[in-house]
Structures are given as C-alpha cells and as structure tokens.
Amino acid sequence: MTTLASTDVLTKDALTVLQPGFPGTSAPDWLLRRLGEGLASVGLFGRNIHTADQLAALTAQLRAERDDVLVAIDEEGGDVTRLEVRDGSSFPGNLALGAIDDVDLTRAVAHELGRRLAECGVNLNWAPSADVNANPDNPVIGVRAFGADTDLVGRHTAAYVEGLQAAGVAACTKHFPGHGDTAVDSHHALPRIDVDLETLRARDLPPFLAAIAAGSRSVMSAHILVPALDPERPATLSRRILTGLLREELGYDGLIVTDGMEMQAIAGTYGIERGSVMAIAAGADAICVGGGLNDEDTVLRLRDALVAAVRTGDLAEERLADAAARVRALAAWTASAARATEARTDIGLVAARRALTVTRGEGYTGPVTGAPFVASFPPVANIAVGDETPWGLVGELRKLLPGTEGEGFTGDAAGEAALKAAGDRRIVAVVRDAHRHPWMREALGTLIAARPDTVVVEMGVPRSTPVGSLYVATHGAARVCGAAAAEALTATH
Q1: What single-letter DSSP state applies at residue 416?
Q2: Helix 296-312 crosses helix 7-16 at what angle (to 10 degrees)?
Q3: Roughly how many angstroms between the first and final C-alpha of the chain, as a whole number?
Q4: How many angstroms separate the CA atoms of 318 and 252, rounded?
Q5: What is the pTM of this model?
Q6: Separation between Cα atoms, residue 130 and residue 173, nearest integer Å
Q7: Which of 114, 150, 380, 424 is found 20 to 30 A from 168 (Cα to Cα)?
C-alpha cells in the first residue's frame, strides 16, 4: 500500500509548480507569504515594471524572502516587451534577426538582452519563439518568429538560447510543438493544426531539437490541437506530446512550462483548475498563470486543485514531486549561473539598421526632408504584444525633422481621411502586416493614387508587393525599428 506524503509536502510541491503573476510594482504581502510556504517562481508583466531600478528593487524584495526564486518574464524583444513596455523595445525582435541571418549577431543581441534582465534580477525568460511562421495569416506569431524557413529558425533559435543563457538567464523555448501554422490566436480560442506527422517532423520540430541541443533550460508548451500527434487534447494537456514526444523521443530533460493557463484555449475549454491538473499529469512541470489572473485566490485555487487531484488519484504524487524537483533544479542552475559583464548597449539599433529593406519606386523623389505627416494604419494588437506598447514613426521622425505630426486611421475610409488630415505635407504611411488587412492595402492605394510621392513603411511581416515612391520594410515594430526607418527615410545618400 502506498502512503501519500503529508499535506505539508503536497502543498509545498503544489505551490512550487506554479508561476503566478501579481499586481503592482512591489510584491504584495500574500505573495511574500506564499514564497515562504514553497512558491518557487513568479511571473512579471508590464504592469509590474516602471523603471530598471524599480524592477531591481522588486526582485531584491522577492529574494529577501526566497534567495533562489525564479523570476520569469515574457521579454522577446521586438514587439513583445515587458522591460520597455511603455517606450518600445531597444531590440528589433526575431523576424528582423532572421532577415539579417547572422547567427553571431542573434547570439550577441540575446546576450545583451539577458545581461539587462540579469542586472534587474530576472533569471528566466519565456523566450525565444522557435515557431516556424508557415502560415502568413498567423495572427499571433508573425514577426515574433525568425521566419518561415525551418533551417533558419533552427539556427537562430539555438544562437538565441546560447546568448541568453551565457548571461545567466534561463531560456524558455516556445511554443512546442510549434505555433507557426495557425490562423487562430490561442489567447482567444483553441487553434488546430491539420498537417500530417511527416510535415510536423520536417517543418516544426527541428527548431526545438536545435534548442535542446543548445541546452535550453526550459520549453513552453502551446495551447494548440495537433491531431497528428494527439487528436483529443491540446499539446499543453497531452501526455503523448509532452511526455511521449518531448521527453521520451526528443530526449528533453529540462523544465516544461505551460503557456498562460488563463488563455481561452484552456480556460474556456477545461477551466484553469482542471487544465492545470491535466497539464502536470501530462508532463508539464510549471504552470504559467498571471497575465490576466493575478490574485492570491488564483494561486490558492490551483494549489488546492493539485493537492486534491493527488488525494483522489487523478494526479500521481510522484509526477507532482518530479515536477517540483525540476523547478527547484532550474532555480539551482540560475543561482549558480555566470553573469554577463560586457555591455553592448547599441547592438539593438545596429541590428535594426541591418534588418531594413529599402525599395525605391519608379516615382522616387528623394528622401523626406521637410516635416511630414505620418499616417498610421494600426491593426488590432494581439494580447501577446499588447496595446500599451507604442509603435510607429512619429516620435523618431520628429527627432530628425522637428514639426513632424501624425495620426492613426482605420476602416474602409482610412485612406481618404488620411489624405484630408495630411493637407499638403508629404505623407509617410505606416502599416503592419498589410497582406493580412485588405482595408490597409486599399488605404495605401488611395494615398499613392492621389500622392505618388507617398512613402510606405511596413513594420510587420513584409509579404505585400512594395508600393510608394519609397518602401521600407523594418521586419518589426520595436522602437529601434522605428529609429532605423526614420534614418533611412531622411538619408540623403
């Protein structure tokens, strides 16, 4: 007869496998209390970060309670930034790095990003994205991927992992087994990838193998249904995928982290309590929750659900203990990992400049010299990016051309409205993934027909045919991408 561990041990293990969020820019009392009871990880989001000094003080506050706490963040650079959520990232993001295709540069960018995180006390980064962006209409990956070519994605994923971890920050390669061929955002619903096993093995899995070979300390599961691997359960809840494929077949021995459990792909289908139990049973080791749900009640509900599942036999006690042990092992690695010292503070802008693609149209009339009117055509931001992070060109162009003004336009009449607002000023039109938005392409057509000297800047995936007198593809909408584009638009040589 097997005797279950004491409630204290089970409770501690259940807390250990959680990676919760919390409100505010300092740690609430309840969070500090749970760290004392066994909680081993916390997740940081934009709401927790105001300045680098404030973030360092926050992580010091956490470590005063538990010195080996895992402090995680979703800091991909590029469009997805938490460290610079209010100003835009100093790093151009994965698509830009893939467009350059210099693995040494990717490694150096990841190293500098890791150095900045480590300096602030963050030691686990939910990055990089190893997804192969096979579906050009993908609403959630896009510029977050290094590209659509498997080999390219694989070599840059490995370089990113190496650079980040050389700075003492654990990488979390995502979203296993690959989120690139989806047309649905898993924040809102459960995506389904209907391709055969041969395609998955040839296209989607190799970048994860490259990450494993590079020593990625953690891997994040995707909330996607892949019938070729498991026709019933999404990857995060699938033993076939997490244990059978990732652990046993691919030989991965690091920490498996779930994507955010409050995302509707899980929360709206299984509920977060049942989903969390199923994820640990399937082979996940850490439950990420806190992007949307960030209160003590969520932590207690998940803790109690895991303990109850062990008591009822729905979750093996050994599986929970193994998961908790893997969390502690990663915490031990981060505590002993070497920290980077050499700073390369300008490397993000260097990379953003190299990522630009500039096409001069037949009607090219020279660089932008007078203060222009910037007409932005923004899509609805996906939740991973968030709508609080600024993007575009107005601020960066204004630094070079004082008096620059701009406005955003959406919908079927966006082009006409932009023309009216611009008056006689030269127009710089800024789009993002124009290939996915017919209204954007129509607006560009309206502008160029009326004003052939219109300049077009594409800050998403540049799949549309270049148009305008000057067309600049930045391969991302980070702050440094805007700075590099502004330089290109005003260059006189």
Answers
A1: H
A2: 130
A3: 81
A4: 19
A5: 0.95
A6: 6
A7: 150
Q: Please provide the average confidence, as pLDDT, over all residues in the chain.
A: 94
pLDDT tens per residue, range 418-477: 999 999 999 999 999 999 999 999 999 999 999 999 999 999 999 999 999 999 999 999
Instruction: Give CA angle at 444 (441, 446), nearest 5°.
Output: 110
Interior/surface letters 144-158, b for 16+ CB within 10 angstroms, e for the rest:
bbbbbebebbbbbbb
Give 295-351 pLDDT, tens digit per residue. Answer: 999 999 999 999 999 999 999 999 999 999 999 999 999 988 877 778 999 999 999
Tokens of 407: 């406005």
| Marked catalytic residue, from 156, 175, 179, 187 | 187
Task: Report the alpha-carbon distance of residue 304 to residue 323 in Å, rounded.
Answer: 16
Active site residue 151: no
Pairing of strands 470-473, 357-360: antiparallel
Is residue 187 annotated as part of the catalytic site, yes or no? yes
Q: Which of 259, 285, 433, 437 does the annotation list as catalytic?
A: 259
Residue 371 and residue 403: Cα distance in Å, rounded?
5
- H or E element, residue 52: helix 52-65
Compute the distance between CA of residue 230 and CA of residue 239 in angstroms, rounded to an integer: 9
Q: List, in sequence order, every residue forming a beta bridge with 72; answer none if it has no partner.
A: 43, 124
133-154 pLDDT per residue, tens: 998 887 788 899 999 999 999 9
Give dist(CA 206, CA 210) in Å, integer: 6
Of 265, 287, 296, 301, nearest in space to 140 by CA:
265
pLDDT tops 60 at residue 100: yes
CB burial of residue 7 (10 Å; 0-12, 13-18, 19+): exposed
DSSP state of 73: E
| Neighbour order of strands in the sheet with 405-408 | 357-360, 470-473, 455-458, 427-431, 373-376, 405-408
Burial tier of 385 (Cβ tally within 10 Å: 0-12, 13-18, 19+): buried
